[in-house]
Design a protein that fits this description.
single chain, alpha+beta, seven-stranded antiparallel sheet, two-stranded antiparallel sheet, about 20% helix, about 35% strand
């Protein structure tokens, strides 16, 4: 399997820019972490029209913000897409019916019956078994919710790795699942109480071809353009938070080029982990 190079050339970034909505400037330099060395922008509250809460950099563009009140397909809908579209650092919020995810529902039920760690607790020795079980279940959740990406690698098919950006003839050449965890957080606003809800988090890596994927000797793959030339691929890193609320699965996906992750990854994780489900009215 082809190893990630940890860099993307200007030509592959230009290919990615063609899928951005009109009005977003396709200003790409050679993908280099030093190109965006400025300090991260401060985070500001963002309450989506669907009622969820999270914190996002103050300069980010809100490309999509839906209430979710209208009809949606059986597969769910993307409620919000925000980000720095100049460098393709994005965070999307997607909502899907739990009825479409029975395996995830079973895992959530198992976690809810186990004593879990919260983000601020230290696990004691006597709690080690419970902690190990939570780790196992969080890993199971990550595997369940990335089955489409893993299946796309086997079939050389397209999948929504970068919500709202990639599509068309894209195919996933490589996928690797990283770490996973589970934590509890209060859904109430500051000073307003609220119940604790279990949130799952995991990260994964993708290598995407914006043309045709061909297998070559030794099981390796290459990205081939319409003229038969070998094209550069797009390598991205993704951090996802998943949570169940009121019969829906919410998926918050933060994504950036692999070459930019050292510079922006910590803030993207902070944005995704700040997500709180809509409050019941």
């Amino acid at each position: 399997r082809r190893a990630f190079l940890g860099r993307v050339t200007a030509s592959s970034a230009t290919l990615l820019s063609s899928a951005i909505a009109p009005g977003v400037a396709p200003a790409f330099a050679a993908a280099d972490a030093s190109a965006s060395a400025s300090a991260p922008a401060p985070l500001a509250p963002f309450v989506g029209k669907a009622g969820f809460f999270m914190r996002i950099p103050s300069g980010w563009v809100k490309a999509m913000d839906r209430s979710g009140d209208g009809p949606s397909g059986a597969g769910g809908e993307t409620l919000a897409l925000v980000g720095n579209f100049r460098d393709i650092d994005t965070v999307s919020v997607r909502r899907e019916p739990m009825s479409a995810h029975p395996d995830f529902a079973a895992a959530v039920a198992s976690v809810n019956s186990t004593n879990r760690r919260t983000s601020s607790e230290t696990v004691k020795d006597s709690d080690a078994d419970d902690a190990n079980e939570t780790d196992r279940l969080s890993r199971l959740v990550a595997e369940i919710l990335t089955s489409a990406e893993r299946g796309a690698v086997e079939a050389n098919q397209a999948v929504g790795v970068v919500a709202g950006v990639e599509g068309g003839s894209s195919g996933v050449m490589d996928f690797r699942l990283g770490g996973s965890s589970a934590y509890e957080a209060s859904d109430g606003v500051a000073g307003g109480g609220g119940k604790n809800t279990t949130y799952f988090a995991y990260d994964f890596y993708t290598e995407v071809c914006r043309a045709r994927i061909e297998e070559i000797s030794g099981g390796s793959k290459q990205c081939v353009g319409p003229r038969g030339d070998v094209l550069d691929t797009i390598q991205r890193r993704n951090f996802t938070v998943a949570v169940e609320s009121d019969g829906y699965l919410y998926l918050v996906k933060a994504s950036a080029l692999e070459s930019r992750w050292d510079a922006v990854g910590a803030q993207l994780r902070e944005v995704a982990e700040s997500f709180r489900v809509p409050q019941t009215r």
